[in-house]
Structure formats: C-alpha cells, structure tokens
Specification:
single chain, Growth Hormone, Chain: A, disordered N terminus, transmembrane, transmembrane helix, DUF1275 domain-containing protein
C-alpha cells in the first residue's frame, strides 16, 4: 500500500512531463464525452457523476435517455478502473512506466473503438444503432476507467483528467490563500477545448474522427511516457 503519491521522488523534469501528459488526457476526456453524449444515447463514458444523473432521468421517464447505456457505461468504467488500479499496485516501477502501461491498454481500446465507429457509420444524424452503441460504450468506458485509475494513483494536484468540480471549487474557495490558479485553469480549459473540438467534428459529420484524434493524443502520451524522465528515485512506501 502506498504511503506517498506515486510521483514522490520524481524530479522537476519528470513532474512537468507527468503534468503535460495528464493535460493531454484531459483533452481526451472532453473529446470522448462529447462523442458519447451526442452519439451514444446521452451517456458519458468518462464522467460517472453525469451517468448516475442520466440513469435517474431515464428511470424517471425523461425522453432521450437510455437506461441501459448509463448502466453499461458505469459497469465497464469500473472494470477499466479495476484493471488500471492493478497496474499501479504492481510495485516500484517509476510512475512514467506505470502510465505507459495504462496508456498502451487505453490506446488499444480506443483504436478498436475508432474502427467500430468507422465500420458502423451510416446515417450518423440518427446516431449509431444499439449494438454499435453498446460496443463503443464498452471500449471507451473501459479505456476511460483505466485513465482515471492512472490519474488517481499519480495524485498530481488539480489534474484528475475527469472530475472538475473540486477544481472549480478550489479556484473560488482558495481566494486569499496560496493558490494553484495556473494548473486549475489549464485543466478546465483542456477539457473545454477537447469538448469543443469533438462537437465541431460531429456537427460537420466527421464523427469517427473524434476517436481518431483521441487515439492520436493517447499515442502522444505513450511516446512521452516511453521517454525516461530525469531525476527519478523510487517513491517512499
């Protein structure tokens, strides 16, 4: 069991590299949640708080919400998070190496999802059919679960890659005290930009390319994580 963050002992260059990679993964979150909400039956594959609310909407009879999609997204997200957690429980590997393993798995899932998105593309103004929706939710939800487990294990302040509520609270509640305005604003902006780009691609009927772009960004994270950071020493246990 870790008694210190996984990033303990990582030098300045390594910390900056980790932050950059988590920012990229935050952009991925914006992209895929735009895709999943608009194309997969009003469901999030990254934001589980939203899915709990959407499930309640569906159970209550609100139009446009699919109960099974929210249940499936939550279930596969948990499976992905479990797999990601297992990666980070494996011992004394440097955090970059752990993130590399998690990101390679996530990349494989996203590439598979992009292939499904292209193969299943028909009249996308009507969205994907239910079998394609289910497969895409499984692949993307599992990938985002892995990503969130990685971010949770690394515990880099204000860079969860998904949950922004506490980040926004921190901007407001920490006024007059030592603040981390830069990372917080960057985290919020990254998700916003990812979502905007995702919506623009969807509106212009480049729907599957949202997942291609997300996969390219994850590939960039894999490449960065593959490069050994300087100044690493084993984290305290």
């Amino acid at each position: 069991m870790r008694t210190a963050p996984a990033t303990a002992g990582v030098g300045g260059d390594g910390q900056r590299s980790l932050r950059a990679m988590l920012i990229l993964l935050t952009v991925v979150t914006g992209l895929v949640d735009a895709f999943s909400y608009l194309m997969l039956g009003h469901v999030f594959v990254a934001n589980m708080t939203g899915n709990i609310v959407f499930l309640a909407f569906a159970v209550g009879g609100a139009p446009g919400f699919v109960w099974w999609a929210s249940v499936l997204a939550i279930a596969v997200f948990m499976l992905g998070a479990s797999a990601g957690g297992a990666v980070f429980r494996r011992g004394s590997r440097p955090p970059h190496r752990d993130l590399l393993i998690a990101s390679v798995i996530q990349l494989a899932l996203f590439v598979a999802a992009a292939v499904v998105a292209f193969v299943s593309a028909g009249d996308l103004r009507a969205g994907y059919d239910e079998p394609a929706m289910a497969v895409l939710i499984v692949l993307l939800g599992a990938g985002m679960g892995i990503q969130n487990a990685a971010a949770r294990a690394l515990r880099v302040p204000d860079l969860t890659t998904t949950v922004l509520t506490l980040t926004v609270v921190g901007l407001a509640a920490d006024q007059g005290r030592e603040r981390r305005i830069g990372p917080r604003v960057l985290s919020i902006t990254s998700m916003f930009v990812g979502a905007v780009v995702g919506v623009v691609l969807i509106v212009h009927e480049w729907v599957p390319w949202v997942l291609v772009l997300a996969s390219v960004i994850i590939l960039a994270v894999v490449v960065c994580a593959w490069m050994p950071p300087r100044g690493h020493r084993p984290p305290a246990r």
